[in-house]
Amino acid sequence: MASVTYDEAPRPRVLLSDFSDLTLIEGLVPTSADLTEAGMRGVYRAEDWDAVVAVGRPKACERTHRVVQFGGSPLRHTASHPGYQVWLVDSVGTTTILTDQCPEEFREELKNSVIPHVRAMPLPRKAIDPPAIDLAVEYFIPLVTDADGNAFAAIYKPVGTAEEVIYLPDGVVPSRAWISLAFERWAKVDPDTFPVGAEWTHQSEWMTGAERAAVANVEAAERELAESTEKLERELVDARRALDDCRADANANERLLLMASGPQLVDAVASTLRQFGFEVEDRDATSTGQKLEDLRVTDGEWVAIAEVKGYTKGGTTKDLLSLGRFSRAYQTETGKSPDAQWYIVNQFRERDPSGRMQLLRGQDDDVEAFAEDDGVAVDTRSLFRLHKAHAEGLIEAGAARNALRAARGRFEYP
User: Is the Cα torsion angle 163, 166, 170, 173 positive or negative in sign?
Assistant: First the structure.
């Protein structure tokens, strides 16, 4: 006579660990039990259960179980040797990557629930250091990583501990979507344990007309969302490319006022002054013999001589003496003094401009004496701001010229 089995529970049979929202598994999990209070050993027979859904590290797990884990310490080999472990490490970069190893059916939900969460996490963020294959894990599929390959979300099989773990980062809210995705994945290799029809109320045959109409609306909205997302992603790529081009252009032009030294800085200053309507002569390119001022700047009959310097440290009053010599040479050449002497300096050029000190800070007496000789100390940060205001239409070229012509002592803009 054949044996008869009684009280065999329908599958999938799922143990819950610190998982309290049972509405998320209604119609999806026909058989469930709570591990949190009872624990596994001595209460539940491991072989009677197929999967574990856990918030944090499961209270118990056997090597035959498949696991969906929302945060906590990753499941790992019971051995204490470091090579057998699956560790969380600190991730300090801001880059977040949806990997090409990610199963296609997981990608949309990762975009919806995991990637926004990971991007919002404060640094350092916790992620799984890729474990040793064949020691700690039989396989490891990173889903969402940082730039160093540390995984915020992953699928892996810990040696001797579980059949498979789908690990999602701390703070990702448990959802029906993730549990369904896990069951669908496992149904491909074990359809008897995870029958595709487990959620039979979602099958068209057993839906009402209102449900089918609602499903059609959802599918239409999902298609529209996918199309809109694809369009926006293309637009974002184009916008980022345009931004990169703008930044490269600024670095090669206007921002040289804040970055360059030597002839490159002289050219950048000359170009900026010309955009204000000044006529600018590069004296190194046109003069012969003795070293003279870098630039001669004219506006009609009005003339300024300019010395341009770029330093990793601060500007120096020694340069003012050079300008005095250039002024005397101009007087010998023309029979009159220049209308202004400009000391234009990109100082502390390797630092963030926001944190640079005032030009000739603590040298107020020298600056006042320089002003009495029609001298102006011009920090290239102010020249950059003036150029930016002119380019954005906030100040006309004539007003920009007048501001520079009228300045004495330190020129500051705004």
Answer: negative
